């Protein structure tokens, strides 16, 4: 079994990696980075919760196989989400993945990092991430709304086409039942 250095927390590590990837991705404004970080963290949450249930899942409602390694599954969920959201940053994300693996103690990945992509725990994280990514596929984030400056300074113009915020995405909505612990 692989265990990560006690000083290392894969959830916090992948949060930092996500921030680095978002910065390198060149997104302007808070909209897309917020959306993308929410997707990564929803995938991580549902992955962890499927392995060690402590709350109601967001979208993935199946238990993980008993042999699932939490650290590798979290790595799979975060890596898969980031590569899907930032395909131009795949090399950077792979570099970060390899850095995470270098912190692992033991296991078959130290000398053969490409082997992780076929690991079942990593694959479980990929599977959870795919569910989260699919749920956001048609959230409106790909709609491009042209900027039409107002005729004079200080004149407010509603955002077209339907007066929604310019980002145009369906928000992540967590009903009260998702906020309560079991």
Structural summary, described in words:
With 182 residues, the protein is mainly α. It is built from 6 helices and 2 strands. Strands 1-2 form a two-stranded antiparallel ribbon. The chain is elongated, with a radius of gyration of 19 Å.
Number of strands: 2
**Total count of helical runs of at least 4 residues:** 6
Global mean pLDDT:
81
Order of helices and strands: EHHHHEHH
Radius of gyration: 19 Å
| Order of strands, widest sheet | 1-2
- What is the terminal separation in angstroms? 29 Å
User: Which class best fits the helix and strand makeup?
Assistant: mainly alpha
Outline the biggest β-sheet.
Answer: 2 strands, antiparallel
In terms of DSSP E residues, the strand content is: under 5%
- The percentage helix is 40-55%
Shape descriptor:
elongated
What low-confidence regions span 5 or more consecutive residues with pLDDT below 50? Answer: none
SSE order and pairing:
Blueprint lengths: L2 E2 L5 H16 L5 H21 L18 H16 L4 H13 L1 E2 L14 H16 L40 H4 L3
In short:
The chain is an all-alpha fold and 182 residues long. It is built from 6 helices and 2 strands, in the order βααααβαα.
Attribute tags:
two-stranded antiparallel sheet, 2 strands, elongated, 182 residues
